[in-house]
Amino acid sequence: MREARASGPAWSKGGSMIFRQLLLLPSIILIASLAGCPGGPPGAWTPLERGEYREGTGTRLDEAKRTEPRGYDVEDGFLTYWGDGVSLVDIERGKRLTLSGNPACGNAAVSGGSVGFLCWSPKPSVEGFYVPEVHVYSISNGVSMSIAHAENLPGIESMREAALCRQAFVVRARVHGQRRNGLWSVDTTNGKARRLSLENEDVGGFSCRGDTLFYYSVGSSGNLLLVDLSSGQRRSVSLGASAAPRNLRTDGQTAVFEDLRDDAFHGGNVEAFHSSIYRHEVSSGLTERVGDNSSIQLSPDVGSGWIVWQDFRNSARPNYLGSKDQVDIYGRKTGARADTRLSQLSGFAFDPRIGHDMLLYRWRPPGEENAGIFAKNLKTITTKKLAAVLSSVLPSVIRRRDDAAFSKDIHHAF
């Protein structure tokens, strides 16, 4: 198992640019009446639909009759997802809330009792050009705010992706007049913004949890940048002789990512692609590979004592990136020496996320086009249709079912 110790300078301020407040945004609008929320104001909380449980029929959190979600996020028992709008689900209470019915809204994230998301609106002065706006919804008081507009952030041309970290909405955005992407933080309480990345960096991806943020720059092979959002301090983290990390995720203590350092792809052989999962511990500086299977491994996440990822080992072509026949979610618990298969159903499983001792992942049954969101209780290691974990919605006999009990004909629920 390969490893490398963290190296590089100690924490530094990284220049005044990191700390200067770019400006107090004039577009902070507290929408007490919620009339300005894109696509209409958030509606009322509604119970998840009840469904009969006959060999797989039942409820799923992302509303089977709607468009397949383009993405989702989960934390502290709340799920937010987007496709033809932005929705919020209280998993424990079995309730759903539509935050926006506008299909131009997405890139939602949930953290610290709030949901942040981007909405794109046409720019009147330029035909075919759309400008993103940052919105934050408070779960506790039901109030929505428009806190930032791309045109009001100096240097930002268009926003690429976003995440919510405590009171900061972090966006990766294109720098005006350049091809580089920068990283900005917008305070959700007062709209103040600051740039987190350096001007010469082209940010390829990032992830944050609490006050800890990791990101990497395009072309900076073998390094991550670690930022403390509370103080603004930053330092470089060496990952050893690594290709540029991809699909970075963190729980605040550990960063996990895809890495091509073990790739056997040579001479254009599409059957020889290999991507491994690596982890980096903040406290010890240790970087090591997770597992030792030679198949393709993608899209990791970390939390609740687990590292999980998408795994191609059960596919007929385990090193072909286009395989769709049988792709699963695997994981390894802290201290374990073997991988655990966490998704047991036939089909294509992908995009795993960990939140509140629960694994969520998307699953597309054989022959179907629509992928739903499913869950696994990481404490009991029993996978269920997501609604089947909701005690307030479905009877207890349903909650006790495992994969084998409903795997037959489960796709008819969609």
Describe the structure.
This protein has 414 residues and is mostly beta strands. It has a domain at 245-379: TolB, C-terminal domain (Neuraminidase, 6 Propeller), CATH 2.120.10. The chain is 3% helix and 43% strand. The protein contains 3 helices and 31 strands. The chain has helices spanning 16-19, 396-399, 403-406; strands at 3-4, 29-31, 46-47, 71-75, 78-82, 86-90, 95-100, 105-111, 114-122, 130-138, 144-149, 156-165, 168-175, 181-187, 193-195, 203-209, 212-217, 223-228, 234-238, 246-250, 254-259, 276-281, 287-290, 297-303, 306-311, 328-333, 340-341, 348-355, 358-364, 372-377, 382-384. The chain has a 5-stranded antiparallel β-sheet, with no helix packed on it. A 5-stranded antiparallel β-sheet has the order 2-11-10-9-8, with no helix packed on it. The longest helix has 4 residues, at 16-19. The two termini are 42 Å apart. The model is unreliable at 1-36, 51-59 and 382-414 (pLDDT under 50).
CATH superfamily of one domain: TolB, C-terminal domain
Biggest sheet architecture? 5 strands, antiparallel
Instruction: Return the structural class.
Output: mainly beta
Low-confidence stretches: 1-36, 51-59, 382-414
Question: What's the CATH class label of one domain?
Answer: Mainly Beta
User: What portion of residues belong to β-strands?
Assistant: 35-45%
Shape type: globular
CATH architecture of one domain: 6 Propeller
Distance separating the two termini: 42 Å
Q: Order of strands in the sheet with the most strands?
A: 1-23-22-21-20
Question: What is the strand tally?
Answer: 31
Radius of gyration: 21 Å
Helix content: under 10%
Count of runs of 4 or more consecutive helical residues: 3
Mean pLDDT: 75
The fold-level CATH name of one domain is: Neuraminidase
